[in-house]
């Protein structure tokens, strides 16, 4: 059995049940945001310690953050992530990517 697969809860007390008419509060969304950002930071930590490249191509950024080309373009156009264009290729500073993730 693969050890990377999360084990399903065995009992009802371990399981959270969600219903169609259940409300999601602002606090729920804030908590989810914090948990998601923490997971992303944990994901990026090994990359930070491995002395990453200073500049990344758009395709590398998309793979790193699991983004579509359109979403990366939106981040660039809205100014959330700056880039430098050389010829027809956009390059992104690794430190700008980390700052963007910390500020979300």
What features would you describe in this structure?
Helix content is 49%, strand content 11%. With 104 residues, the chain is mainly alpha-helical. The protein has a three-stranded antiparallel beta sheet. It is elongated and about 50 Å long. It starts with 25 loop residues before the first helix and ends with a helix.
- Major sheet strand order: 1-3-2
* Mean pLDDT figure: 80
Report the total helices.
4
Task: Based on the coordinates given, report the CATH architecture.
Answer: Orthogonal Bundle
Structural key phrases:
Arc Repressor Mutant, subunit A; 3-stranded antiparallel β-sheet; elongated; 11% strand; 104 residues
Put the structure in a nutshell.
By secondary structure, this protein is mainly alpha-helical. Helix content is 49%, strand content 11%.
Write the layout of secondary structure elements.
Layout: H1 26-49, E1 55-57, H2 58-65, H3 69-77, E2 84-86, E3 89-93, H4 94-103
Antiparallel strand pairs: 1-3, 2-3
């Amino acid at each position: 059995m693969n050890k990377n697969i999360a084990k399903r809860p065995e009992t009802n007390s371990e399981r959270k049940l969600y219903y169609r008419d259940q409300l999601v509060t602002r606090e729920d969304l804030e908590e989810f945001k914090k948990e998601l950002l923490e997971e992303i930071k944990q994901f990026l930590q090994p990359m930070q310690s491995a002395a990453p490249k200073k500049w990344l191509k758009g395709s590398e950024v998309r793979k790193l953050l699991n983004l579509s080309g359109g979403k990366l373009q939106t981040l660039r156009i809205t100014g959330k992530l700056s880039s430098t264009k050389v010829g027809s290729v956009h390059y992104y500073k690794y430190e700008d990517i980390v700052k963007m993730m910390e500020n979300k």
